[in-house]
Amino acid sequence: MEDQNYILFEAYLSKELSQDGIIAFESRLKNEPDFNQAFNTYKELSSFLEHKFEDEAASTAFQNNLKTISKTYFEKEETTKKVVRFKPWQYAIAASVVLLIGIFTFNNFSNPTFNDYNNYETISLISRGGQDELLEIAENAFNNKNFAEAEAAFSELLNKDDSNKELQLYRGIALLELDKFDEADNLLGKLSNSPSVYKNKAIWYLALSKLKQKDHTACLKILKTIPEGADDYEQAQQLINKLN
Amino acid sequence: MSEKKIHEDQKYIDGLFKNNSFVIQAIYDKFAPKVINYIKQNSGDSDKAQDVIQDTLITIYNQASQNKLQLTCPFDAYFFLLCKRKWLNELKKSSNKEVTINEDVLSKGDEAQELAFETSVFGEKQALFTEMFQKLGTACKDLLTATFKIKSMEEVAKSLGVTYAYARKKKSLCIGKLTELVRESPKFNQLNN
After folding, report:
1. Does some domain include residue B128?
2. Topology adopted by domain A117-243
3. Which residue range forms the structural domain that includes residue B154?
4. DSSP string for B109-130
5. Which of A79, A173, B8, B175 is paired with A242 by a 20 to 30 Å CA distance?
6. Which pLDDT tens digit goes with each residue over B31-48?
7. A-proximal residues of B, 94-153, CB under 8 Å
8. Where are the alpha helices (DSSP H) in A83-145?
9. Does ipTM exceed 0.85?
10. Are the beta carbons of B146 and B160 closer than 8 angstroms?
11. Residue A25: left (phi > 0), alpha (psi -120 to 50), or beta?
């Protein structure tokens, strides 16, 4: 390419050509591929040089900033690699364990269950000098928390004397322990509706039956019918507070 | 290009151009891990990844400041393609072996592929232009440096102790010389084809 052409390129780019000159120049761009290619390269290089020198300060500032950020990022990347990295599934397991512990403690502290209340006092059914073997079996079984055996014994005893409210109560508790809720509720319900010294105890255990069945609404309703002065009144109030 | 919709990720390009540290940091946090993994899985290491990412971001910066780069695809795809291309070129250079480019990622979007290609050609041209500039004679180098640093040609002429007309002519001829060097290089013909 002749030197003259480069001088022409420069004149065209700095808009110094006359109207005729521009027309002639643009016609050459169309018709001479080599001229066209040289011009485009010249233009590209002008733009390159302009950027290279004019924006040098901004460009240097950018590169320095970039280097700092890059260095920090990769140093961090190196150190995190040395730390044992948990894989996502390990995080999931850890999270589940925490969650389970949480649910467990939460349950223990805030959600009352039947098992919080089924610590029975030892019962004593045998009168001094009494010889009733079945009564002894029932008593022992109940005190040893062998509720299936106790229930069978109470059931047999009640067949002989179905009016014994003490035995009815203990059978009710045994049934409750065995998750025989229908029979338990039926028996305790009847007991709680008839006047006897076991009435309030029956109400209390009926409430516990509802608690064990997780029917908290029914449980609360029953608990509220336990009168002040009943043996289990205090416990009942505490349970009401926990359930509310 | 102008009628195409600009992708919202243009914010990364603009942030780079404005030298916004938060944006640069975000680019590293979001997009670097994928590139690092790729390079590590393809005969590279963390240091190589650092260089590739840094060079790629400088190329994007340069293109943004010269060409008003407009992103029409997600930055993620564009950036990854660029880094990948750069890394494969490095591998070719160092091993002299034929490296097969796995084109699976390229097919993800023509838009990303096209843009990444443009930027990558831009970057290679920049490197070539810089190399060729160094081949110019001292007189030309000094004149061009002065010309583009000091905007007024009168000032340039004065500082170099030459006439205005001579300085102007010399500028055209020096860029002309550079144009010739570039056009003669085999690399340039590769890039232009």
Report:
1. no
2. 1.25.40
3. 136-193
4. -HHHHHHHHHHHHHHHHHHHHH
5. A173
6. 999 999 999 998 889 999
7. 125-126, 129-130, 133, 144-145, 147-149
8. 88-110, 133-143
9. no
10. yes
11. alpha
